[in-house]
Write a structure and sequence with these properties.
The protein has 17 helices and 24 strands. It has 498 residues and is an alpha+beta fold. It has a domain at 5-245: ATPase, nucleotide binding domain (Nucleotidyltransferase, domain 5, 2-Layer Sandwich). It is globular, with a radius of gyration of 23 Å. The structure holds adenosine-5'-diphosphate.
Length: 498
């Protein structure tokens, strides 16, 4: 039995997860503690209490320690990951001033517009490598300044969700470059806070935490936190990462070549970047990676797994996803000329269009339900292909795709993805997401194994691979061209007044 362990903690939206890995990178134990419901006092608002994240973390840590039987002294390092973009505000005594405005809070469109006017859209892209979005931290902070001056007057520390846990664990104020990238206050190219954005928006730079590379030690568990968690006083806590960057570490996307494709409710294509290349139109996010000195780029299909989930609920209640995949496989490739636009919640990449709408195009009386499902899966894969093409144009040639998420459970979906992307699609043995990546970052920072890439090489094992079927390459290349012609043809329909 291994004598050295590393703890990964991920502050998700629904709950906080803690897991232990051993020195082979094998998962040893894990526990999840649920959060309170998201507070949605008004339309577009979404808030959570940071104290509740900490309570959930204490519960998850306690359960992992108890269930694994691992002694606290056997834990050599802790890595943190978490939901990005959330605004946590502390006063001079380290008290939480108000509930955190989390990533999906959308109240700040007016603030985004004002930031664009004050700082200038081109200058913002230059300073932060990304456009400002309502989800990001800065417009939330400006909202509080405008609407809650009493709260704003007390502000002394701005923290991201996982960094609030770090404060509770170590007493220090720190963040890491990947999570800081989603604040709209971070100079992604130079890996430091953006003086331009801080000055233009008239913020106090002293509020912002020290920023570290993800495997760097940022502090150690305090005596107080040791008492509250059962962890050992002095255990090092590394920088960790935002949930996407951490999850990519868990998938081994830590060098040029493979990209990851996560088929969850939304679909994310994630690629490693050696340089901070960004899309001047902001259709993909370019952020610092959790690998020191590297960046990453991310494209998003909003309605990936969501498309199938919607279909099952509305059109096939009672059917299992496996039933639906079997049915889809019975239709011919190309679904007899039927196309699905997965824009059920608008589309992020490549259209950046919240008003885009979904639908099937090309229906005839010949089509059966099997064709509808097959077209739906193919359409989601075409949208992922759009993401892949953009990501590849910034990050360089993509050799293979590592797939994860609910959709990846289906061999049919994996094969269709390989055919549409024209790349081998690889699945991994451990699919533990961000908490696992955070634990690997702790291993890289405190284990003496070398850097993040060396730890990933030791820990991550592939489980299977499907290759594109050459006989279908032409059909799917043609299908993708036709799919791509549909959005421009419908744009006026989505935007009647423009
Ligand atoms: P989330 O993004 O919410 O964490 P998951 O990664 O679990 O979710 O993905 C959920 C989606 O995965 C579902 O909406 C569904 O479309 C898809 N899915 C889940 N199981 C299967 C399956 N066996 N076959 C095909 N698709 C599946």
């Amino acid at each position: 039995m291994s004598s050295r362990y590393w703890l990964g903690i991920d502050v998700g939206t629904g709950g906080t997860r803690a897991l232990l890995v051993d020195e082979d990178g094998k998962l040893h134990a894990q526990a999840m503690a649920a959060h309170e419901e998201i507070r949605m006092e008004r339309p577009l608002w979404a808030e959570q209490r940071p104290e509740n994240w900490w309570a959930a973390a204490r519960e998850a840590i306690g359960r992992v320690l108890a269930e694994s039987g691992v002694r606290a002294a056997g834990i050599f390092g802790i890595g943190l990951s978490g939901q990005m973009h959330g605004l946590t505000m502390l006063d001079g005594a380290g008290e939480v001033i108000r509930p955190a405005l989390i990533w999906c809070d959308q109240r700040s469109q007016a603030e985004v517009d004002r930031i664009n006017r004050i700082a200038g859209e081109a200058a913002i892209l230059e300073a932060t490598a990304n456009p400002v979005l309502t989800g990001f931290t800065l417009p939330k902070l400006i909202w509080v300044r405008d609407h809650e001056p009493a709260s704003y007057a007390r502000l002394r520390h701005v923290l991201l969700p996982k960094d609030y846990l770090r404060y509770q664990l170590t007493g220090g104020f720190a963040s890491d470059v990947s999570d800081a990238s989603g604040t709209a206050m971070f100079d992604v190219a130079r890996r430091k806070w953006s003086q331009t954005m801080v000055a233009k928006m008239d913020l106090d730079p002293a509020w912002l935490p020290a920023v570290h590379e993800s495997p760097e030690i940022t502090g150690v568990v305090s005596r107080k936190a040791a008492g509250e968690t059962g962890l050992a006083e002095g255990t090092p806590v590394v920088g960790g990462g935002g949930d996407q960057a951490s999850s990519a570490v868990g998938n081994g996307i830590v060098a040029p070549g493979p990209v990851s494709c996560t088929l969850g409710t939304s679909g994310v294509v994630f690629s490693y970047l050696e340089k901070p290349n960004y899309d001047p139109r902001g259709r993909v996010h370019t952020f610092c990676h959790a690998v020191p000195g590297a960046w990453h780029v991310m494209g998003v299909t909003q309605g990936a797994g969501l498309s199938l989930q919607w279909f099952r609920t509305q059109m096939a209640p009672g059917a299992s996803y496996n039933d639906l995949m079997r049915e889809a496989a019975s239709a011919p490739p190309g679904a007899q000329g039927l196309y699905w636009l997965p824009y059920l919640m608008g589309e992020r990449t490549p259209h950046l269009d919240a008003a885009a709408r979904g639908g099937w195009i090309g229906l005839t009386a010949r089509h059966r339900r099997a064709d509808l499902i097959r077209a739906l899966i193919e359409g989601v894969c075409y949208s992922q292909r759009d993401c892949l093409d953009l990501v590849e144009s910034l990050g360089g040639a993509v050799a293979s795709v590592r797939v994860s998420g609910g959709g990846a459970r289906s061999p049919f979906w994996r094969q269709t993805l390989a055919n549409v992307l024209g790349r081998p699609v690889v699945s991994l043995e451990t699919e533990e997401g961000s908490a696992y990546g955070a634990a690997l970052l702790a291993m890289a920072g405190t284990g003496g194994f070398g850097g993040v890439a060396e730890v990933c090489a030791l820990a991550i094992r592939t489980a299977g691979q499907v290759d594109p079927q050459p006989e279908l390459a032409g059909l799917y290349a043609d299908g993708h061209r036709k799919y791509q012609s549909l959005y421009p043809a419908l744009r006026d329909f989505f935007h009647p007044s423009s």
